[in-house]
Amino acid sequence: MLEEKIDYNAPLESEEKIYELIIEDLKFAETNLPVLYTEAPFGRNGINIAVSEGAAKAALSYVYMCMAGWPLNKGNDYYKLAAEKAEEVIDATDKHTYYYKLLDEYKQVHSIAYNYNNPEVLLGIYYNRDRTPNSIPLTDIPQDVIQNGWGDTNGEIKFWKEFPEGPRKDATYMPKIILADGKLHDWWDDPSNQREVVAPIFMKTVESATRGQDFNYEDPTALPANGEKTIQVIRLSQVYCWFAEATARQGQVTPKAVEMLNRVRNRADGEKTNRYSTSLSADELAEAAYNEHGWEMAGYYWAGFACRARDMFRMYRFKDHFEYRKNNPEIDVAEGVKRKEKVSVTGTWDDSKMYAPYPYEDAILNPNL
Description:
Elements: H1 15-32, E1 43-44, E2 47-48, H2 53-68, H3 76-94, E3 121-125, H4 157-162, H5 167-172, E4 177-178, E5 184-185, E6 231-235, H6 236-249, H7 255-269, H8 282-296, H9 308-314, H10 318-327, E7 331-334, E8 337-339, H11 360-363
Antiparallel strand pairs: 1-2, 3-6, 4-5, 7-8
Helix pairs in contact: 1-2, 2-3, 2-6, 3-6, 6-7, 6-8, 7-8
């Protein structure tokens, strides 16, 4: 729909028309929003609470990335636009026009200490457990773990296996879990062979029962359903990845693109490894940036703006992953231990699987859906 009116026979509009509306709004936003809000409730603790110029520019960059990929497949020209817009954010940050900066350690990114004053967050949704809580602390915790989670989501084994070891991975997945026997286990343990889901467990959104403290996986205390962790819609490290990928997808390998990716990976490694260099081919740099963004955002799908699934969508990689999940091979997760996904995938691929189905309540009202 392109207009805000009730029409039960409204035709389906093209994705390109929807993107045009998004671009129009974001261009207006980047021109008319301030760099920094200085008064509550729009700004607090020296950071922006409301959408700012920098957030609008960053959002534009990723939208251009999406338009360059599937299904519009606009390609090189839009990768160029994406790189240019990301570079505007990077340059303004490096010149201190924007206050944004990477936190020193990845474990700080989703910590309680930086919940309300995270300089890496360009756009966040803020909560208060007493008045306006979120409802996400239990979603990633399995039901059979002693802290009593909801088991809504779980990590994929292959992705966990390929995730580079280091501080970023340590801060992304629970190191151990407590099962009903009260003992610490590796996620792949299944003592009774009756666990419904055996999979890596993310812990970015988990909150401690004790307010003001970070979650401790060794504490068996039941966790709160209501939380106040900020939902981080856009972070600076993502912009670095987008710039590197969009540059490389144009067939270019530049020192600046490599530097941005190394900023992300050096923090992830916990030391200045500088793993990437200008000796990479453009395809290699593009894939490295794509992967780094996936690892930065691993297990974080809240707001849904630029999560791993969205990256896979724009690169048309759901189909290959669908076939992989159908095959569901066993994976070595520890010495002498193999695991495969307990959630099966069946059926035959078609591109309708790229999308969620229309809500039934809407489909019965509009025959065009």
